[in-house]
Design brief:
By secondary structure, this protein is of the alpha+beta class. It is built from nine helices and 13 strands. It has helices spanning 3-7, 40-46, 67-70, 96-103, 162-184, 202-288, 292-313, 317-320, 325-335; strands spanning 13-21, 24-27, 35-38, 54-57, 71-81, 86-93, 109-119, 122-124, 127-129, 131-143, 153-155, 192-195, 198-201. Strands 1, 2, 3, 4, 5, 6, 7, 10 and 11 form a nine-stranded mixed beta sheet that branches. The chain is elongated and about 155 Å long.
């Protein structure tokens, strides 16, 4: 097969369909079917069903018996265009005559879908509608002369095909012609331009523009400097605040240390008192456990001491000048005024 023969082969073309669907009110008054609300959220739910549906010429009912005869292509993708707020799709065209018609301007399209669930009617943007479309599915995409959405059209310069090459060539040629025209144009700084009724020389206008740019640049630099100073001041304030917080935390830690020291001292005293009490209890217990004969010896010793004390009390004071311990304590208290 020669190169010329290969160029005559028609290969299926992948094209983009722009604005195929848009959320909002849909009017079917031309077929006496009223006005319906089709929200963007509902479209997002049902638009995937258009994928793999046939591309046909004019609206026709698609059946399993006629789909091969009326199909001139297939929808291969669908998606939401955030820049336009509408839904687009991609198609593959496998009919050469249809493709040539699209290139020649017969590129308007209209989608067909069936509704499976309706909601109540109401008012949207001040316009009353009969019901809201809540669910459904697409059946085909048709090439028509008068679409319900006027902006719905097939683009031929978005993919690698002859139409794109042609459009690209025309665009480049136009740019080259524009460049040539610009080269022929000469700017004379002495020319005057009408500004609000006054004739102003182009040179003065250019100088004024440059000065305005310099002034704007200076203002921007000043604002940037001011912002930097404010940021630095904010940082210094934050640093000081952090420093004060650290000092406060340190003071709190010191006060906590003093409190802990006092608590430790009290606990230590309590432990010491408890230990002393324990020792005393142990001594008392040891005293209770002393042998009986030792207790008797002590009692005998006490008895002897008392006998001596009693004997001394029966003696004449002038002769012995003896005073009991109680008398000595009484005199001492009287001497130092400790008694009542």
């Amino acid at each position: 097969m020669t190169e010329q023969q290969e160029e005559n082969i028609f290969y299926p073309k992948i094209l983009k369909v722009e604005n195929v669907m848009v959320g909002g009110l849909v009017g079917y008054t031309d077929v006496d079917d009223g006005t319906y609300l089709l929200r963007k959220e509902t479209l997002e739910k049902i638009i995937p069903s258009i994928v793999e549906k046939p591309l046909i010429v004019d609206h026709q009912e698609v059946t399993k018996d006629n789909i091969k005869d009326i199909s001139v292509g297939t929808v291969i993708n669908s998606y939401y265009n955030s820049e336009t707020g509408q839904f687009d799709c991609d198609i593959i065209v496998n009919d050469e005559e249809v493709y040539e018609n699209i290139k020649n301007g017969n590129n308007k399209v209209s989608s067909a879908y069936k509704v499976t669930e309706f909601g109540e009617g109401g008012r949207y943007c001040g316009i009353e509608y009969d019901a809201e479309i809540l669910n459904g599915y697409f059946t085909h995409l048709a090439i028509v002369e008068n679409p319900r959405y006027p902006d719905a059209k097939i683009l031929v310069n978005n993919f690698n095909n002859k139409g794109e090459d042609f459009m690209f060539f025309k665009l480049n040629k136009l740019n080259e012609e524009t460049k040539e025209e610009k080269k022929e144009q000469k700017i004379n700084e002495g020319d005057t331009i009408d500004v609000d009724g006054d004739e102003v020389e182009l040179k003065d206008l250019i100088d004024a523009y440059k000065n305005s740019c310099k002034k704007n640049k200076a203002n921007e630099d000043e604002e940037a400097k001011k912002e930097n100073e404010e940021e630095k001041q904010d940082e210094d304030e934050k640093d000081n605040a952090c420093k004060n917080e650290d000092e406060e935390e340190k003071e709190n830690e010191d006060s906590d240390d003093d409190l802990i020291t006092k608590i430790r001292k009290v606990v230590k005293e309590m432990l010491e008192a408890k230990e002393n009490k324990k020792n005393e209890d142990e001594e008392d217990k040891e005293n209770e456990d002393e042998p009986k004969d030792e207790k008797e010896n002590k009692i005998s010793s006490y008895s002897k001491s008392n006998s001596l004390r009693i004997a001394s009390q029966s003696c004449e004071p002038e002769k012995f000048e003896y005073k009991t311990r109680a008398e000595r304590i009484a005199e001492s208290n009287k001497k130092y005024s400790l008694s009542n």
